[in-house]
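FORM 7B: Structural annotation worksheet

SECTION A. Query
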Amino acid sequence: MRGFTLVEVLVALGIVAISLMAGLQATAALTRHAQRQSDVLLAQICAENELIKTRLTRQMPGVGDSSVACEQAGRVLTVVVAVRPTPNPNFRRVDAQVLDGEASVLRFSTVVGRY
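SECTION B. Predicted structure
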């Protein structure tokens, strides 16, 4: 008789199952990466907006922390802006951290000088 034995069919099915699982994991990784890239892009826009706003005021920012809501692409992110003194009194360090709920997405830092 010609044909495949039961063992050969089971081995072939096992190989197919393993390759399908590997493909599924690769697809899931690509999806997670695309979502992370989107999150970082939106967070970057929010952080840059806050840092640019600080520079455009043309005043030395006051030392302290503040929190601002930022809506981008239908999502609301929180930008925490922390202003800290530096050893040189003519400059201040400004950190902008973007949060999605409790999770930190991105942090930017810059130095703002006296105008």
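SECTION C. Observations
The first helix runs from residue 6 to 56. Helices lie at 6-56.

SECTION D. Sign-off
Analyst initials: ____
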